[in-house]
Amino acid sequence: MKELIARDLLSIKAVFFRPDEPFTWASGIKSPVYCDNRLTLTAPKVRNDVENALAAVIREKFPEVQVLMGTSTAGIAHAAITAHILGLPMGYVRSGSKDHGRQNQIEGKLEKGEKVVVVEDLISTGGSVIEVVNVLREAGAEVLGIVSIFTYGMKKGLERLAQADVVNYSLTDFDTIARVAASEGYIPERDIERLIKFRNNPSDESWIGSNN
User: What is the 3-state secondary structure (H, E, C) of the chain?
Assistant: First the structure.
């Protein structure tokens, strides 16, 4: 599954690598990878692979789930499609409470004690998805875990998930996509070491320009 999803994401440039001309994240970190899993929504075959894989992971890992909750905004569509496949209710968690109406932060019906799985598109440092988990817990939900399309596997993200006592299952990961990208000619084999160096320590920019 990891390799299938990796090929899918690479094929539509939802994830692609540019280590010689790195992108700059909002945090200022230089990154050799660009990730926009929203592109899966406009690619029907890839979308089908992704949503069916999310459903399969949820069936296997969280058979007792009662509600899916998407992260705002990228996880909402994936939560909705996957919930449809599974015949489950879904909702989503806003990044903050609305300033009008009922001032909801959680959209959709959620009863205290209900077993919830959070659907996220990607996890890097883990901060935003853990905020969602905390909001759901404060509302009385039992968060069984997280399913995501892609994870970087960064140390900071893994540590945050462990501290929050929440498990994440991703359809594919940074190492798999880097390996598949090299095997299928998206990047030269020698770039894998540079990419892993970035993954291990994003603040260390020594991988930039070190392609010889």
Answer: CHHHHHHHHHHCCCEEECCCCCEECCCCCEECEEECHHHHHHCHHHHHHHHHHHHHHHHHHCCCCCEEEEECCHHHHHHHHHHHHHCCCEEEECCCCCCCCCCCCEECCCCCCCEEEEEEEEECCCHHHHHHHHHHHHCCCEEEEEEEEEECCCHHHHHHHHHCCCCEEEEEEHHHHHHHHHHCCCCCCCHHHHHHHHHHCCCCCCCCCCCC
Q: How far is CA 211 from the centre of its chain?
A: 28
> Tens digits of per-residue pLDDT, 116-156?
999 999 998 889 999 999 999 999 999 999 999 999 999 98
| Nearest CA among 57, 84, 67, 61 for reference residue 149 | 57
Q: Which residues are within 8 A (CB) of 93 and not within 5 positions of it... i.e. 6 or more apart?
A: 69, 70, 71, 72, 105, 106, 107, 118, 132, 135, 136
pTM of the predicted structure, to 2 decimals: 0.92
Distance of alpha carbon 120 from alpha carbon 133, whole angstroms: 11
Give me the residue label for tokens 């030269």: 188
- As to burial, measured by CB atoms within 10 angstroms (0-12 exposed, 13-18 middle, 19+ buried), residue 37 is buried
pLDDT digits (tens, 9 = 90+) for 60-112: 999 999 999 999 999 999 999 999 999 999 999 997 654 444 457 999 999 99
**Backbone CA torsion sign across 183, 147, 162, 19:** positive
Q: Which two tokens stand for residue 38?
A: 């929203």
